[in-house]
Design goal:
about 325 residues; alpha/beta; Peroxisomal Thiolase, Chain A, domain 1; five-stranded mixed beta sheet; four-stranded mixed beta sheet; 11 helices; binds acetyl coenzyme *A; cytoplasm
């Protein structure tokens, strides 16, 4: 829970790169089918970066869309946080590259990496700075180019991921509105289920690590699926009880878009009807930290969020990690 000033989401933006890769395109690349992918995941197509594009390019576009919607200039941002599991570099931080590109000269900047839960953790972190009174405007961005970390010969993973970015601007709000509940969690004992094994201090890149494809995403899909179904229930329940609400009070659930079956399972468990759930996985696949802000952006564009609505953001991912945020819009 935030103890200080109320914090609201003042504006949201998003950007997806132009190239679209459909399931039919994937049928020509690996032994898979549109039918299998749609039935097992709900994904029909995903957007991918062009050669030469990197995560900060997507982040900058999402940031510009967010600032335009807020009607403010980059010089009014106090802090930029970029959540990403696929940064431009191990260092410098992608947030610094974004800060430079936006000319947000008076802004501090740092990155956060907590897999697909990144945006939720970053939003929670940004909210603390605003709530404490240290900063008035924090730009939180979830941006990913997982296509760069994907083994395009591995059908177990290459059908799942897509590229994109979403951004939210945090600022002080009125009592009773904005971010009213935050639940964050992690279980490092299951870290091995989802990781990019090589290229860092545990296993620096060598010819062998590259030959073995250890610089790509490795995932035990079945185990992550089981974890996800369970943890979505935990994360939603925890944040609801924190704010004294029940599943029937949710006006819109915006879940991480990893697998349509994981989302359906949570909705079934809580009796949340389809019209109260934001699903766009068919268009973008799993964009990791970008999935929740892109879905939030689209929900606003589609007029699905009104003032006073209770919106629940929820995600899970590598770590393993999870988090949920309750927002009164
Ligand atoms: N096309 C066709 N067949 C496939 C494909 C494919 N793309 N991928 C796997 N298969 C096959 C398997 O080889 C297996 O064949 P077998 O029975 O002959 O061995 C069969 O389909 C069933 O495979 P499962 O792994 O059991 O399929 P499942 O129904 O579990 O779906 C999936 C796999 C989609 C990966 C699912 O487990 C999943 O969504 N897991 C969660 C992933 C996730 O949410 N990750 C989120 C975090 S990501 C992050 O933080 C970056």
């Amino acid at each position: 829970m935030l103890k200080g000033r109320p914090v609201r989401i003042e504006a949201v933006g998003a950007y997806v790169p132009p190239v679209i890769l459909s399931n039919y395109d994937l049928e020509k690349m690996v032994d898979t089918s549109d039918e299998w992918i749609v039935e097992r995941t709900g994904i029909r197509e995903r957007h991918l970066v062009l050669p030469g594009m990197a995560t900060s390019d997507l982040a900058v576009n999402a940031a510009r869309s967010c600032l335009e919607s807020a009607g403010i200039g980059p010089d009014e941002i106090d802090l930029i946080i970029v959540a990403s599991a696929s940064p431009d570099y191990a260092f410098p931080a992608t947030a610094c590259l974004v800060q430079n590109e936006l000319s947000a000269r008076s802004s501090a900047a740092f990155d956060m990496e907590i897999g697909c839960t990144g945006f939720i953790y970053a939003l929670a972190t940004g909210a603390q700075f605003v709530s404490s009174g240290m900063y008035d405007r924090v730009l939180v961005i979830g941006a990913e180019t997982l296509s760069r970390l994907t083994n395009w010969k591995d059908r177990n993973t290459c059908v799942l991921f897509g590229d994109g970015a979403g951004a939210a601007l945090l600022s002080p709000g009125e009592q009773g509105e904005g971010i009213v509940g935050i639940h964050l969690g992690a279980d490092g004992s299951q870290a091995d289920l989802l990781k990019l094994p090589a290229g860092f201090s545990r296993l620096p890149a060598t010819h062998d690590t590259v030959d073995e494809g250890l610089h790509y995403i490795h995932m035990d899909g079945k185990a992550v699926f089981k974890f996800a179904v369970n943890i979505m229930d935990v994360a939603i329940s925890k944040v609801l009880s924190q704010v004294g609400k029940e599943p029937k009070d949710i006006d819109l659930l915006i879940p991480h878009q990893a697998n349509k079956r994981i989302i359906d399972s949570a909705c079934q468990r809580f009796g949340i009807p389809k019209e109260k759930v934001m699903v766009n996985i068919h268009k973008y696949g799993n964009t990791s930290s970008a999935s929740v802000p892109i879905a939030l952006y689209e929900a606003i564009q589609e007029g699905r969020i009104r003032k006073g609505n209770l919106v629940i953001l929820v995600a899970f991912g590598a770590g393993l990690s999870w988090g949920s945020i309750a927002v009164v819009w």
